[in-house]
Amino acid sequence: MTVLFYALLAFLFFGGLAWLFVSTPPAKLAMIMNRGVPLLLVAAGGLLIAIGRGGIGIPLAAIGIAWWRKTRPVGTLGAGNASKKSTVISAALEMELDHDSGDMNGKILTGNHEGKWLSELDDADLFALYTEIQSDADSSALLEAYLDRRLAGWREHTDANTGSGQGDASASGSMTKQEAYQVLGLEPGASKAEIRKAWRNLMKSMHPDSGGSAFLAAKINAAKDILLD
After folding, report:
1. CB 186 within 8 A of CB 168
2. What is the pLDDT of residue 158?
3. What pTM did the predictor assign?
């Protein structure tokens, strides 16, 4: 009876594998082998343990677990989909730049629209906010950078006393290392190679010659200099 049981189990297992090899495209088969077979081994081991065959079931389950740990994708909890973001904070705005898409958005920190995101405001509210924060050079420069991306030619259609979009990178005083990491979208302790790579990627979209913001480009340069000092 025992021999017959094991023979049936082996037949089902290897018969299923043979069917997969014959009927599945190679690329998909590789994915199934790396992800499905380890789970199948764990399940088979658990079944054997449940029916009192722990001498075989425990090693089989252990093999499946070890196989799964070795072949599972890195970042299975969603880290692989996370996008790096740079953050620049002024008195009125916390601006974010997505490294992958180049999209920019900002959270309003004070005033009539405190707590809202710039993307939630219509054009009229954005212009009103610009007038409201003009006394702060850094905040004005950040909002100008956002408006340049969202509303092409906005300067020609507003009577606001718009600046050049450059701002004064030194107006906010000395940048801390923590702020520098935020500007480059890096975690503290990043290597020099990672710092230079983040700086290059950001400057491609933020350099004034590419239609970017001179103010943000100055912040990015300052952050690189601080972290590489």
Report:
1. no
2. 64
3. 0.55
